[in-house]
Amino acid sequence: MEETTGSAQNWAKQTLQAVSDEKETLSNHDASEFVDASFREFFKSYDSSLQSQQDGLGRYPDDADAYNSKFIDSGLKIQNKLITEEAKEYALVTLEQTSQQFLGKMDSLGKAVKIDTSKGQVEVTVEGFAIRPEDTVALQQFGEAGDDQECGYLLLIVKNISHPVSDDYSGHIRFDEIGTVSDEEGVQRTSSDSSLKYPGYECGGGAAFGVYPGSDVQIGETKRISIPYVVNKSTNTVRVQMNDDSFLILPVGR
User: Fold this and answer.
1) What does pTM read for this prediction?
2) Which residue among 24, 34, 158, 193 sits deepest, i.e. has the most Cβ atoms within 10 Å of its Cβ?
3) CA-CA distance, 47 to 31, in Å (whole number)?
4) pLDDT (average), residues 165-188
């Protein structure tokens, strides 16, 4: 626990420094510089989102409510929304690049990341993390989840490049060969060893591809895989750490 907590605190400290650096960069300009009224509002809202992130990260880990409300809700989510809405209309390369300093290689979200495993190379695209209330009930009945926990799914697109991942157990790949999932406190989550799956996705129970019927991935084939995880009901985001050192902070969809 000491080691895990120290790692999370170190991440928060580094993130705070990167956000502060970005805000300092923006301080060299003023909204009044811009002729376009829409961009002036964007600039002020973006700067405000960075201020919220600073405030929230400064409360980590002593004040979880402030961290969640400021860093995540009024900070990170607002910033990402602003970038998404405005990037198509304005040249925001500098702003996007500086935001990636603290989000890690955030361009991995929605894009394929190549990872080497013991079974060869695969491409993984992270699509999101979603809760299924009906599956939460099932896991609670199985004794795999408590009353204060939920069943969530890490949603992936997996493309096998160099080695078929078959339903032969010796040919399977586990997600922990590709990356890990942790909650907001930095505690690594363990995949539920169940055959539950998210609608429209193949089963990745136990974080394994190629163990359950229909989940095998042939060379060059692409499949959507859902991996069940048990998370706390208070969890608003999860951190997906890929083995190529990139990471993603995903909002938990409910």
Assistant:
1) 0.58
2) 158
3) 10
4) 86
Q: Give the span between the Cα atoms of 90 and 53, in whole angstroms.
A: 23
201-221: average pLDDT:
87
Are 173 and 223 a contacting pair, CB within 8 Å? no
Token duo for residue 233: 């009901």
Peptide bond into 61 cis (omega under 30): yes
Q: How far apart are CA 46 and CA 215, in angstroms?
A: 42
Cα separation, 164 vs 162, whole angstroms: 7
Residue 104 has pLDDT above 60, yes or no: no
Q: What percent of the chain has pLDDT over 70?
A: 87
The first and second tokens of residue 152, run together, are: 């969530």
Pairing of strands 247-253, 120-131: parallel
The C-alpha atoms of residue 207 and residue 5 are separated, in whole angstroms, by 24
The whole-number average pLDDT for the span 31-36 is 74
Residue carrying structure tokens 């009930």 = 137
What number is the average pLDDT over the span 56-78? 87
Residue 200 has phi, psi (to 5 degrees) of 90, 0
Long-range contacts at 188-195 (CB < 8 A, ≥ 24 apart): 188/4, 189/229, 189/230, 189/231, 189/238, 190/229, 190/230, 191/227, 191/228, 191/229, 192/139, 192/144, 192/145, 192/151, 192/228, 192/229, 192/230, 194/138, 194/139, 194/142, 194/144, 194/228
Average pLDDT of 18-23?
A: 86
Q: Residues 8-22: what's their mean pLDDT? A: 83
Distance of alpha carbon 129 from alpha carbon 155, whole angstroms? 6
